[in-house]
Fold:
Amino acid sequence: MKSSIRMLKRPTSFVLASFRPSTLKRSFSEVGSSGGAFPFAKIYSKGERPTRSAVCISSVLHSLRPCWMALLSILWGNFTLSWMCTPSKFCRVNTTSWQPPLSTLLRFAALVLAGLVLAPVVEAADRDKLLSEPGVYGTFAAFRLDTDWAKRDQASRIVQLAVLKGVVEQHREKLAIDVYLLRGLSDYADLLFRVHATELRETQQFFLDLQGTSFGKHLISSTVFSGLTKKANYVPGMPDNLKAELKTPSEPGPRPYVIVIPIRKDADWWSLSQEQRAAMMQEHTEASLPYHKTVKRKLYHATGLDDLDFITYFETSRLEDFQSLILALEKVKEYRHNRRFGHPTLLGTVRSLDEIIEVLAQ
Ligand code: HEM
Structure:
């Protein structure tokens, strides 16, 4: 009994060691070192390798479409949860000698075969292109977790989070997906997804698949807005010294904080001539440049796609710089044309999916 309790109290990171990022083209040793994958919450001790069939199954799983992953999770979940929730069984699931019963493997194999027939090989989208080129849609979707989530036991939460990971992995083929933790810094939402796509309907499919999973049923949408990246409108007409300063690279190192501010301009702004707006944007740029090195920014044009005109996205390690930047911008004329600034302002931390999973599993 003592040992069961010890196992149940293992840090989540240990249990989640099996949910490392996946790619279909993993080598045997890579898969072996991460201990297989969803839905086997099986931990391999150092130096130990999974059986060849476990490796095959784990690789094949990563090629399943989200619906198959979800189905699989239900079938597997029904079995695993009832089994894992007995403390002595939960202890066994973490031992190296554990093998699922034959009937489960057969059921599992049938699903894998169906998935193989239906699923194309998953290749990751060109993330760098999606994040740097114009003509890409950026969608920001913030969610709260319902109160039932916290009431679920850890084993059940881990199984559901594995499904979240599966859905994200599957959509990496076409989308660049970033996740942020808002919980603790925002009472507005717990989680934020930023999704980049060349086709907005691909983003929609991702959220449909996500919300269709057992994990997604716990998500309550707080806000969602979309915008489009475009070539700079005013920079080409700015003096050379400003253009050169804008090109200087930002300080290296991690930027753990994220801030997203939706903006709507007033009707007067849009009735100004291009020259008048350009003059004000030059003033905006001059006021902002002192913070250019510590605040990384990205602009999305949202007019017509949302009730907004712009979505502004920032990453920084120095929130005090960000605050000074906003104070500096509030003094320029262009700021007076902001009819909506924030509402909501989303503040959170930049996290990997594994980090988010670990936090939500606690
Ligand atoms: C590091 C700090 C910043 C720098 C260097 C900067 C610079 C610029 C530049 C050069 C443009 C013109 C882009 C173009 O040519 O189309 C621009 C546009 C814009 N910036 Fe900033 N900015 C900064 C921070 C901010 C902040 C904090 C906000 C508001 C929260 C903001 C809101 C906007 C908006 C809404 C536009 C689009 C205006 C329009 O196209 O009409 N910027 N910024």
Q: What stands out?
A: The longest strand covers residues 219-228. The CA atoms of residues 145 and 219 lie 5 Å apart. The pocket of protoporphyrin IX containing FE is lined by residues 232-235, 246, 261, 263, 281, 284-285, 288-289, 291-292, 295, 297, 299, 310, 312, 325-326, 329 (CB under 6 Å).
